[in-house]
Amino acid sequence: MSRPTAVTDFEEFVAARSAALWRSAYLLTGDRQRAEDLLQTALVKTWRRWESIARREAVESYVRAAMATTYTDWWRRRWNGEVSTGDLPDTAPAGVGEAAGVEVRRDVLAALDLLPRGQRAVVVLRYFDDLTEQQTAEALGISVGTVKSQTSRALAALRTSPLFAEGDPS
Predict the structure, then answer these.
(1) How far apart are CA 29 and CA 169, in angstroms?
(2) Euclidean distance between CA atoms 98 and 121, whole angstroms
(3) 28 with 67: CB under 8 angstroms?
(4) Of 163, 126, 128, 170, whose CA–CA distance to 148 is shortest?
(5) In the 8-state DSSP scheme, what is residue 77?
(6) Which of 76, 163, 154, 160 is nearest to 121 (CA)?
(7) Angle at 127 between CA 124 and CA 133, to 5 degrees
(8) Cα–Cα distance between 121 and 112 in angstroms, integer?
(9) Alpha-carbon distance 161 to 110, whole Å?
(10) Selection from 40, 12, 13 nearest residue 26 by Cα
């Protein structure tokens, strides 16, 4: 494949899939800026291998695997780049429906943040990215059995999370 064609193919892939990939990165990191950094790093890794990825349908799996391994590597290295603050900047008031959606998203992210990184990665890939157990195992470089056990433990932890308790917490 010629270099100009490779560049065009890569740019088209990024344009078509970057929003979905960013969402996965955000669910992994729980932070917008880290999600952008994670996706950018995974795309750089993908670009470096672009011409050797023979099956174009495998590109997205390659990027997701790169995000998962990079996310884990950052944690292992205790990456402490930008730190988000507890105080949010002033924003326009949200409608009642929007506020409820924001609360649910906040609770889901908080619950995901309590999971160990491996369990969090499995849950994001299986339930948010809708990958099969086999695809998840391939993306993370683990066995299907590990995907199953990590999923089971993660779902058990999420089911017992006080963030999802029914009724008034007081």
Answers:
(1) 27
(2) 27
(3) yes
(4) 126
(5) T
(6) 154
(7) 90
(8) 9
(9) 10
(10) 40
**pLDDT values of the chain reduced to their tens digit, one per residue, 170 residues:** 556 787 888 899 999 999 999 999 999 888 899 999 999 999 999 998 888 876 777 888 889 989 988 988 876 655 455 555 666 555 545 554 566 678 888 888 888 888 998 999 999 999 988 889 999 998 888 999 999 999 999 999 988 888 777 654 44
* Cα distance between residue 94 and residue 41, in whole Å: 33
pTM of the model: 0.59
CA 40 to chain centre: 13
Which residue, chain included where needed, has tokens 């990590």? 150
φ, ψ dihedrals at 20, nearest 5° = -65, -40
Query: Within a 13 Å sphere around the CA of 88, how many CA atoms are in the beta-carbon half?
Result: 7
- 127 token code pair: 């339930």
Amino acid of residue 108: V
What is the distance between the alpha carbons of residues 92 and 102, in angstroms, rounded to a whole number? 13
Q: Are 114 and 161 in contact (CB under 8 A)?
A: yes
Question: Which ranges of the chain does DSSP label H, i.e. alpha helix?
Answer: 3-29, 32-49, 59-76, 96-114, 117-123, 133-140, 144-159
Residue type, 16: A
